């Protein structure tokens, strides 16, 4: 992939141009920003998320130093095709997208379900990934991973009853500090006002939940294959993907670094973005 470009360098996710690339009859929607590099940072997003679900307070600091690419999985947002029934298939589609862009080496930043997809991708294609960031996620077959479905539906009901965004319940503690952080996070997701993405369909959302459940109930992957530098982060009170699974990942991935944020939940990296963003930037530019 050539680093030469006459395009102006965009470092604000709110202004990142909307693009697409077609491979195998599937059109993948993506955005890219930051200085051009031979090795970009590919962002793997969470359950039910589209391009508009990345926190600009995480993306923008990284894009000041690194070339960032976010994308919609098949059947999500502006990408065509059908949402895969398994995390393994989602990893295959991610590989298809990355190689279609012309890259044979990437760094990965992942959150939640995106971290599950990233793990499957690295296990299958260990030479593709140079550096790996796993946040709010856990290993295949991890304890209570399959309970994500029940927690998600419970919080969906709570969000409907309170006319709130479901992420306020799933991602944040329900104490005063968590509630303030939740409102601020949801507000930041609306900073982009042009070329907004299409929301995920209910069927696609349910398919992704089923894929996570299968992932949680399947045999563990051999994470000893992950030899690249790995940064793991989460809040210490994650109800969605239990925080103990971050510790589990840390034990399984030799040489990995673990950062836990106190008094925070699944969205700990977003609640503590002031502290976490510099850590992620340092790791990805080390």
From TrEMBL:
<dbReference type="InterPro" id="IPR029058">
    <property type="entry name" value="AB_hydrolase_fold"/>
</dbReference>
<protein>
    <submittedName>
        <fullName>Alpha/beta hydrolase</fullName>
    </submittedName>
</protein>
<dbReference type="InterPro" id="IPR050471">
    <property type="entry name" value="AB_hydrolase"/>
</dbReference>
<dbReference type="InterPro" id="IPR000073">
    <property type="entry name" value="AB_hydrolase_1"/>
</dbReference>
<dbReference type="GO" id="GO:0016787">
    <property type="term" value="F:hydrolase activity"/>
</dbReference>
<keyword id="KW-0378">Hydrolase</keyword>
<feature type="domain" description="AB hydrolase-1">
    <location>
        <begin position="41"/>
        <end position="270"/>
    </location>
</feature>
<dbReference type="Pfam" id="PF00561">
    <property type="entry name" value="Abhydrolase_1"/>
</dbReference>
């Amino acid at each position: 992939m050539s680093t030469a470009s006459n395009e102006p360098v965009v470092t604000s996710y709110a202004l990142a141009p909307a693009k697409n690339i077609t491979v195998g009859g599937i059109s993948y929607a993506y955005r890219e920003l930051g200085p051009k590099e031979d090795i970009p940072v590919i962002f793997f997003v969470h359950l039910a998320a589209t391009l508009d679900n990345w926190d600009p307070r995480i993306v923008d600091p990284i894009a000041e130093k690194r070339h960032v690419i976010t994308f919609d999985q098949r059947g999500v947002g502006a990408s065509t095709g059908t949402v895969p029934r398994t995390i393994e298939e989602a990893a295959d589609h991610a590989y298809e997208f990355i190689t279609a862009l012309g890259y044979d080496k990437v760094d990965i930043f992942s959150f939640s379900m995106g971290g599950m997809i990233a793990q499957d991708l690295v296990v299958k294609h260990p030479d593709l990934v140079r550096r790996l960031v796993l946040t709010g996620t856990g290993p295949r077959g991890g304890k209570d991973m399959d309970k994500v479905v029940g927690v998600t539906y419970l919080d969906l009901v709570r969000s409907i009853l309170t006319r709130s965004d479901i992420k306020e319940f799933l991602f944040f503690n329900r104490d005063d500090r968590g509630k303030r952080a939740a409102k601020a996070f949801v507000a930041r997701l609306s900073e982009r006002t042009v070329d907004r993405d299409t929301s995920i369909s209910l069927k696609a959302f349910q398919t992704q939940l089923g894929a996570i459940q299968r992932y949680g109930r399947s045999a563990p992957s051999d994470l000893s294959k992950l030899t690249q530098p790995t940064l793991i982060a989460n809040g210490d009170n994650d109800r969605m993907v239990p925080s103990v699974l971050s510790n589990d990942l840390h034990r399984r991935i030799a040489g990995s670094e673990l950062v836990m944020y106190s008094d925070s939940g699944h969205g700990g990296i977003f609640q503590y973005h002031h502290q976490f963003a510099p850590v992620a930037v340092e790791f990805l530019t080390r």
